[in-house]
Amino acid sequence: MQKVEKGEYEKPEEAINILLFLENTRRYFQAIAASFRADLDLDLGGFIPEKDELFVAGDEELLFSAFSNLLLNAIEVSCPGDRIVVSLHTTEPRVWIRIFNPKAIPAHIRSRFGQKYITAGKADGTGLGVYSARSIVEAMDGTFSWESGREGTTVELSLSLIHISEPTRPY
Asked: What's the predicted TM-score (pTM) here?
């Protein structure tokens, strides 16, 4: 993370199958979401992780760190019955991933969301989770954006697409 902050991070040319990555990440966080009595859903836009290929450029360990921070934030603010949705779509040469949760970012921090040390409502929060996720994604030549309102919060990331196969449609 220090290299990312100093602009010294050299992006490895690692190909990550984002379909398997997202499915494995969902499985990892499913029990955590369940402990909050929330649902964690994954919408891969017709792609099937075990059959299709969708590779992005990046560092899988850092990407997992970024997703972990974002998913944990979404889960930790959830209430019983809430539905957190991770969705994916492609527009070559990018892959777009959205993380939606039905809670709004508190109005008093919205203008500073994603900046270092900005937090609200978490007694042990440091305000580094979203900041580090944004920094990691941007270091991998990705984009990070968000919107929040009465309907909830959507964080959207994009990553560079390396390879895509046609989606397998279940029939």
From this structure: 0.83
Non-local (6+) Cβ contacts of 53 within 8 A are 17, 19, 163, 164, 165
Written as six digits, the tokens of 133 are: 């996720």
Burial class (CB in 10 A: 0-12, 13-18, 19+), 56: buried
Residues 4-23: tens digit of each pLDDT: 776 776 766 789 999 999 99
Residue 154 CA to residue 141 CA, distance in Å, equals 20
Q: Which backbone phi and psi does 153 adopt, to 5 degrees? A: -125, 135
